[in-house]
Amino acid sequence: MPRMCRNIYRNARTFAKMSCEKAAMELSISESTVRKYERGTMPVPDNTALQMAKVYNAPWLRVQHLENNTIFRELFGVVLQKENKAANILALQKEVGDVERCFPQIISATLNGAGLELNAIRECREACAALLAVIGSEKASACATNTDAPR
Fold it and tell me: Could you give the angle at the alpha carbon of 64 between the alpha carbons of 61 and 65, nearest 5°?
């Protein structure tokens, strides 16, 4: 089977030249669980996907994992379209940076009500929480270089 047709988690493990057994040991899960993730018969929890990205030294796995996340797709819409994915990811990083700079004002406005309806405040808090998760992931991977990605 061609490499690109395989499961994203298996692709990352293969790229790392890591056996299923070693991956299971590094991830502190069973070998059968790794195989279920790689066959697509068991969903990969977000925290496990992040751990895989670190263990496999595959930062792009985080993005590929998010592409399958319904909540992320709902919040960020067409950011992860198949065409020109690299430009879309850079645009997302710019947007996250813009939000991060004005985050204190967003929090103040949300907490003070700032004339917002209760539903709008709730949506703002949810969006801020989602952005914090993305920002945290970006900061955690700041030491990763672009040479880590497959060509």
Answer: 85
Q: How confident is the model at residue 6 (pLDDT cuts 50, 70, 90)?
A: confident
Query: In the listed set 40, 68, 96, which residue is the last one of a domain according to the structure?
Result: 68
Tens of pLDDT along 46-100?
Answer: 899 999 999 999 988 888 888 777 777 766 665 555 566 677 677 777 777 776 7
Q: Please tell me the pTM assigned to this model.
A: 0.52
Domain coverage including residue 40: 1-68
Q: Are residues 79 and 137 in the same domain?
A: yes
- Same domain membership, residue 41 and residue 78: no
- List Cβ<8 Å contacts ≥24 apart for 53-59: 53/12, 53/141, 55/16, 55/18, 55/23, 55/26, 55/27, 56/12, 56/13, 56/15, 56/16, 56/18, 56/23, 57/16, 57/144, 57/148, 58/12, 58/15, 58/16, 58/148, 59/141, 59/144, 59/148, 59/149
Number of domains in the chain: 2
